[in-house]
Structures are given as structure tokens and as C-alpha cells.
Amino acid sequence: MTLSNTYLINLLETVKKRNSGEPEFIQAVTEVLETLEPVIDKRPDFVEAGVLDRLVEPERQILFRVPWVDDNGRVRVNRGFRVQYNSAIGPYKGGIRLHPSVYLGIIKFLGFEQVLKNSLTTLPMGGAKGGSDFDPKGKSDGEVMRFCQSFMTELYRHIGPDCDVPAGDIGTGGREIGFMYGQYKRIMNQFTGVLTGKGLTYGGSLARTEATGYGLCYFTDEMLKANGSGFTGKTVVISGSGNVAIYATAKATELGAKVVALSDSEGYIHDPDGIDLELVKEIKEVKRGRIKDYLNKYPNAIFTTGSSGIWTIPCDIALPCATQNEIDKTSAELLVRNGCIAVAEGANMPSTPEAIEVYLANGVLYGPAKAANAGGVATSGLEMSQNSARLSWSFEEVDSKLKDIMTGIFKACDDAAREYGMEGNYMAGANIAGFLKVAEAMKAQGCV
Ligand code: NDP
Fold first, then answer.
1. Cα(2) to centroid(ligand 1), Å
2. pLDDT tens column, 60-71
3. Cα distance from N-terminal residue to C-terminal residue, the chain
4. Which CATH class is domain 60-191?
């Protein structure tokens, strides 16, 4: 897509100049502005109120030093980030990513996406994201704890249950959330719902662990059904083997599909008989091992080094659940050539703009991240509600609310795409539906 609206063209130029070293942020903003063109043509009041000029600039960006001591007594220093992106419709909310690739541009792109995603859930949550270039892989529990405590020793002053509620993301699972929560409680002397993704013994919600992967499949199922198809009998390829990938595998299998591949940053495993998920859970969740360890039990499965090759495996449905820009144009063309009918994104921005063009040009059903993976933050919102009310719902109750929310998100994307003349383009639908609520709230609250 190319822009023709002069205001949007100039705005995008400003964004590019101001954020020149941050290609992921520019990529995320460009995609959204391109699909908002018909909205802006219809709603000059948003331009007058400077809604978009404000939306492309985070409300607050916090950068800090995170010193900690490793097992050899050596001082290590990482960089910590929290971008409180937009609070128009609720307290800031978004995960913490711990990965060596983290820098400000990654956190800003994730925060920007989070604003529209949280809006789509219909729950009252603004958008934020945080993280650090710390790598938990290969670190001892003690090292991870000391890092998390140091990280929270600065972060605590910027967050709170009615202000900013962080959660997990890449590298931040139950262990890390536990360490961060303990440190927050110690400093503040308050037992509040300041983080989500907590353990079940201290305020966590049932089904939060499963939520992003399950929600991805609920969304995909709605998208398939609306187009006369479904999961039953389909072959599915899923990238990653972390939280999202594992529970997407579980739900896709439950819905009648066969998942034949998973990956990590070292390579991918292809098991044409269908992935043994219990084994993967043991390798990844219990032993914190590598996906290639799968071969120890299934020597006939195939392990290939390098993660992008996973998209050469023929499949009906592709669910990228690892990281940003993991499907490029070539991989997208391969998926199309091999008969893939749907791509739905568990990871944030896993498809490059060129890959998305390939899906749309070839009639591949495309479920964009901010809609398809919103189940995680939606269930975090449900965890916040339970914490505020000081009660806990059953797994079935949370799962059924999650399913309703994902069905509602699909409908909102479908309706918005149709209303703005782009039927079947769920990316445009997601951007428009997510934007409208935030834009109305920003306009109503004046120039802040
Ligand atoms: P995890 O840390 O649990 O798992 C991440 C998986 O992706 C691992 O298998 C990891 O392999 C792989 N991976 C990470 N970075 C890379 C890379 N640069 N190249 C190749 N593989 C990589 O994270 P999650 O499952 O929680 O998150 C996965 C994606 O889903 C992210 O994009 C995240 O933002 C998104 N997401 C997560 C939500 C959640 O609730 N957890 C909610 C919404 C979106 P390795 O172990 O080798 O690093």
C-alpha cells in the first residue's frame, strides 16, 4: 500500500526523521498509517485534534541501568526500558521482554502495537512495553533472580495497579514474574495486582499461561469458519517453542489439526507424525533445554539448523509464534506455493510488509498479531479484574471469557474492514477498529 493523503505522508516523514535508528518502530507505524487512510479521509476532526501526531509519540520513555552480580561475583550491567505508550483508555499495560536483541526501537514498536491491541480486547487498558537486553538463557536461577530484583528496584517507582501493570513476553515467564513480584512487594509493602502472569498461589489467573496460544487458535478458527473452513484435518506449522507456541500447538491439536513442526533460535524440528507436545513441554518448560533434544526420543524426526527454513515445510496453516520479521517475502511465497490457506500471528509483527503483500495478493487468510495474539493481554485484563475483586474464577470461566473476547475481536476486524471497503483484509480491520476507540478517547480528553 502507498499513502496518498498529504497529511499522513508528512506525518510519516516526521516519524522517520525522529526515529531514524529504529526500523521496527517505523515499520509498525507505517503499516498502521497506511491502513488508516480511509478513516482519516472520513474524520478530519481527528486530524484537527492532533490525535495521530500524538499517537506516533509515546507518552513516556524510561531508560535505566540494571546492575547485578553473576555467580562468579562479577558485576554485570544491562539496560532496562519501560515505554508507557498511551493511557487514553486505561492504565498502561504490556509485557517485559528479556532478550539480547532488545533496544529502545523494539520496545517502542511493541508498545505502539500494544495500544491498538489492548483497545481491540474491549477491556480498559492503555498500552506499554518494557524489557532489557539481559539474556536469561544459560543463566542460573540465582543470576536471573538478582537481575529481576535489580530491574524492579528501578521499575517499581514507575508502575502500580492503577498506573502501569507489566506482564511476561519473550524471556519473561512465570519464574521471572515471580522474582519481580517478590521484589515489588518487598519495596512497597503492598500485595497488589501490579504484575500479571503471576503464579496461582499469589494472585495469578487460571488459563493465563495458555491464553495467548489458545486465543490465537480461537481467532484463527473464527477466521477459517467465516471463510468456509476449519482446523479439522489441517496440517499446521508453528514457529517458536515458548509459551505461545506450546499452547497454540495444544489448542490446534484439540481442534483437530496436526502440528508437524516447532522451532527455537537454533533450528527447527519436523515430525510428520505430529509433534509430541508433552515431550516438548518437558524439554522447554521443565528442563529449559533446546528443541533439538526432541531427537533423543524421536530419532526419525528431522532437525534442521537455522530457524527460517521452517516455512519450507508444506502446511495448510502457518502460525508464527517466535519473533518479529521471521517471515519474509521469500518464505511467504513458499507458503503460498505449498498451498497454505491461512497465516495467523502469535508473535508480534512476525511478517515483513512484503510478506503481508504476498498473503493479500494470493488470497491467504491473514490474522494480524494485534488481533490474533490479543488473548494473552485480554486474560491479563481478567487477572486484574480478579485481583481487584479479590476472588478467582475457574479455568472454564476464564477460558470461556477468552473465547468470547477472541470471537468479538474477529468480528470487530471483519466489520471494520467491510465498513471501510476492504472486506477480508483483517489487518486493516484490526488497525481501524483498535484505533477508533483510542482516537475518540484522546479527542475527548483534550490536548494531553
Ligand atoms: P518465549 O520466550 O516463551 O518463547 C520464545 C520462542 O521464540 C522461543 O522458542 C525462542 O527460541 C524463539 N525465539 C525468540 N527470539 C527468537 C529469534 N530472534 N529467532 C528465532 N527464534 C526466536 O516467548 P513467548 O512465547 O511468550 O513469545 C513469543 C512471541 O509471542 C513474541 O513475539 C511475543 O511478543 C509474542 N506474544 C507473547 C505473549 C505472551 O502472553 N507470552 C502475548 C502476545 C504476544 P530460543 O529459546 O532459542 O530463544
1. 31
2. 999 999 999 999
3. 31
4. alpha beta
Q: Cβ(151)–Cβ(140) under 8 Å? A: no
Has residue 1 got a pLDDT over 80?
no
Tell me how far the alpha carbon of residue 290 lies from the centroid of ligand 1, in angstroms: 14
Burial class (CB in 10 A: 0-12, 13-18, 19+), 88: buried
Question: Domain segments of the chain: what residues?
Answer: 1-57+424-448, 60-191, 210-367
Binding site membership of 346 for ligand 1 (Cβ less than 6 Å): yes
- CATH number attached to the domain at 210-367: 3.40.50.720
Instruction: Please work out whether the CB of residue 39 comes within 6 Å of at least one atom of ligand 1.
Output: no
Domains 60-191 and 210-367 share a fold: yes
Whether residue 129 lies in the annotated active site: yes
User: What sign results for the dihedral spanned by CA atoms 35, 41, 45, 47?
Assistant: positive
323 lines ligand 1 (CB under 6 A): yes
pTM of the model: 0.98
- Domain 1-57+424-448, what architecture? Orthogonal Bundle (1.10)
